[in-house]
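Re: weekly structure request thread

Next one in the queue (328 aa):
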Amino acid sequence: MGYAGKWSGEDEGVMATDFFWSYTDEPHASRRRQILSQYPQIRQLFGPDPFAFLKIAAVVLLQLWTATFLHNAPWLKILIVAYFFGSFLNHNLFLAIHELSHNLAFSTPVYNRWLGIFANLPIGVPMSVTFQKYHLEHHRFQGVDGVDMDIPSLTEANLVRNVVSKSIWVVLQLFFYALRPVFLKPKPPGLWEFVNLIIQVALDTAMVYFWGWKSFGYLILSTFVGGGMHPMAGHFISEHYVFNPDQETYSYYGPLNLMTWSVGFHNEHHDFPRIPGSRLHKVKEIAPEYYNNLDSYRSWSQVIYAYIMDRTVGPFSRMKRNLSTKSE
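Done, posted below.
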């Protein structure tokens, strides 16, 4: 890979002052062609997960029931349950929405959209439809400056420069992730965004009316803490933050894949976004020589710790490219 990174000093122990810039296309399209030419049977893994609806429905109902159960609980108990239980459920649903953005529950796209709105309910904030718009661009234009909204803004990167600011950034990373596109690349809302909004507001209103603010607060807390200083949120950093300048996407092969739709198999996912998480592990089993030599992780908590404590790593630790280097 051709790349250039700008460091704030000659010592490589100093944080970069610019993003890494690649002068080649993202690696996944070419690797996909190579793997399919050698292992055409991988195409048999394409298509929806027939159990996706049942898995999503079970988590949605469990989380909504938990919220109603806690309607009279003290706030400290609500916070504890949200961090150690509800956060796992809501993050699971966030990654279910990620799965649905690739139409991996049903062959008919509109069914996936409705299921995404349903999966959105315990999250408390409407995001399913808007997420799909930006996420598909992240795949098609990975790292492209001004297009891929997964990459931190210059403001974030210039402000987050030390252990304290990186810790705050990690705690609030869900807000940055959600609000970044609104400021950098806003898209006009369409009909489906309004459907998502109306249904979500109706659920939130019903929760407050029938069970009170504590039940609704539990759902919001589950979303917030699960997207911050939390093991599940380690994937936000592990997926594309550059710890090795020769690699821009990283997989995670730890146990939390069981709760996150195998989003940890991230190289495999970007290589084959039409394969559902339940079958992504088979890609590595069929074509191990393409993945065994890539850097990967076994702990998302360790990734968060390394991101905060490693003085060379920060929001600038992302690979960027100009649109002119993106091949169609």
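The first strand starts at residue 3 and ends at 4. The beta strands are 3-4, 20-22, 251-252, 296-297, 319-320.
Next request, please.
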